[in-house]
C-alpha cells in the first residue's frame, strides 16, 4: 500500500509538471508544431498526426475534444464520434471524444489509485491487442486523456479510416441479392473464432460494428475481410467461457437483418 501511494504521488507530480509542457513533433519541418493541453493531460500521437492537427488548427485539447467535424456518426450522450475530412481519403481522421465519464468510472479510478483506464485508453489498448492477433480493426493515430489529480475527466481517440470498400454489415446485407451466401458467414465466423480463441471479447458486437470489405478485385482467392470497430468495451479475458461467446453471438444475431447464424 505504501508503494502504491508513492507511485500515485509521483504520477500526480508528473501531471502537474505537464501543465507547462508543450508536446512537440520531431523531424517535421515547415512550421512550429505543438499541442496545448490543460494541466493533467497525457497525449500520444503517431508521427505526422501532430502536423495534420496544426495544419487544421486543431492542436488544442479542448478545441479537438469539442470539434464537430463534417459528419457526426453517433448520438450517444457521453460519446461523440465525428469525421474530420482531409484533402484526400487517406487524410481523413475519425475522432471519438468521451466528454462525460460515468460516475462509476470516476469511483473505480479513485479506488484503483488512478490506474483505471479511460474509455479512449481502453479502446487504444484493445485496438493494439486485436491487431496483434491478426484481427482487422481501425488503425489508431493518437490518444489524449485529461486526468486532473489522476481522476479521469475526458478522453479522445484519433483513428484512421477503414478501406473505402468496407461496408457496414447490416447495409452490406441489405444491398446483396444473396444475403446468406456461405462466403459472408464463413468470413464472420472465422474472425469471431479467431477473436474468441485469442481470449478477446467484443461486448458490443452489433451489426453496425462489423464492416465487410470485398477483396475480389485485389485478391481473387480471398472473397471478404471483416473489420471490427467500436472496441471501447472490449476486453481480454483469462478464460473465454461459452457464456461470453454466447453474448457476442446474441448481440450479432439480434441486429443482423435476415441472418441465419
Textual characterization of the structure:
The chain is of the alpha+beta class and 261 residues long. The chain has helices at 2-18, 49-55, 61-65, 103-111, 119-132, 169-174, 182-197, 242-255; strands at 41-45, 71-72, 80-84, 93-98, 140-146, 154-159, 166-168, 200-201, 210-214, 224-228, 235-236. Strands 1-5-6-4-3-2 form a 6-stranded antiparallel beta sheet. It has a 3-stranded antiparallel beta sheet with strand order 7-9-10. The protein has a two-stranded antiparallel ribbon with strand order 8-11. β2 and β3 (80-84) form a beta hairpin. The longest helix has 17 residues, at 2-18. The model is unreliable at 18-31 (pLDDT under 50).
Outline:
This protein has 261 residues and is an alpha+beta fold. The protein is built from eight helices and eleven strands.
